[in-house]
Each structure stands twice: as C-alpha cells, then as structure tokens.
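Comment thread on ticket #2218

A.B. wrote:
> Attaching the input chain for the structure job we discussed in standup.
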Amino acid sequence: MDGQVKNNHLIKNLLRDISNLKRSLQSMIALCEGMIAKCDQIERAQDILTSEIKLTPREDDSDIARVVAVANGHPVYTDAAKNLNKEDFDIILDIPQQRLRARNNPETKSELYECNIKGMRARRRRLLVYMLKHPAVKVGCHNIYKIYKDDKYVSPNTLSQTMYNLRRLLGQNNAEGPYILTKNVWVSHRGREEMDGAGYVMSDKYHYLVILEKFSK
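C.D. wrote:
> Ran it. Output below, let me know if you need it in another format.
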C-alpha cells in the first residue's frame, strides 16, 4: 500500500512538472512570436524610411554621384549612364516619360514595342517598377506589403490576377515566361522550411532597364 501511495505521489509530481514545462514553453513561444512581430514592424518602418530618402549628392559630390537608372537590378550613376545602349535591354521602363517598351520575343531580339500604361492602377504600377528594379527578388503574399507600403492583406487570387494583367501588358501569354515566372515560396516557420504558396520573379535570362531621371548620352 505504501508503495502504491509513493508511486501515486511520484506520478502527481511528474504531471505537475510536465504542466509547468508546458507553460514555460508556451511563454517562450509567445515571447518569440512577439519578438518576430516587433522585428517585422522595425523592418517595415525601415522600408518606409528608406523609400522617403531622396537620392541627392552631397555638397562635395559632383553630378556623377546621382543614380539615374537601374539596369538588371544594379544602380547606374550619371557618369555611367552615357554608356548604356538601350538596344541591349528587353524591357525598358522610362518613368519620367511614363513610357514602357518590351520585346514580344526576347529570344530572337524582336523590336521593342510600345506598351500602353495609361490609366494603369497605382499599386500595379508600383509592383511593376519594383520587379524591374529588383529582378532577382521573388514577390508573393509574404512580402507584398513591403512593395505596396501598407498593411492591407492581398489574397493569392488577387496577386495572381495582378500578375496575369502584368504578363498581358508585357505581351506574355502564359505563366511559363518569357518574363514573369511563377515559383514556389518557402518561408522559415519555427525553425522549419514551409511552402507559402506561389511567388513571382523576373526571368534572369533577359535584361531590364528602369530610367529614374532623364540623362544625356
């Protein structure tokens, strides 16, 4: 009988320890999630702050310090812009002139044709500019808020429809290319890699130019 009482006492203590351990783990998980949320807030604030910084040269800099274009994801300064050959690019977005040109068939280097961007919605335009300036970055529901600069939820269906419209604008008839490709998005969640739906990225086979300011050749 004494042995049974002792065993019951040990089991009771063990269950209590397990319960305490569970509460501790739950507290740690909540703390980690709070820290992740805080990091996201800081990252968003940093993105907004960065977007508001004007690209102006310092007083001791000359005009060559200004970024006037982005070619294949890399900044182009005034002094290097004169060496740009627009025929080397498959998509050219000229922001000052509100002009977009693309090749129907970049494989054969077909002529650049004019894309109609009049009346294009602001959010769609911002997304296009971002993707052409950052062709290696995969865009999906996990990071779209950084591009739109707001906290509005964007559903996978809405993003898919937006990409469909951008593809049509660029003369693309399907999801396999040539320009905007569909890729799986993998995110880290509690130490594990999990698939988080579809993402979209510009093909690295082609060349993209975004003109930010008018420059002379």
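A.B. wrote:
> Thanks. Noting for the ticket: The chain has two domains: 1-53, 63-211.
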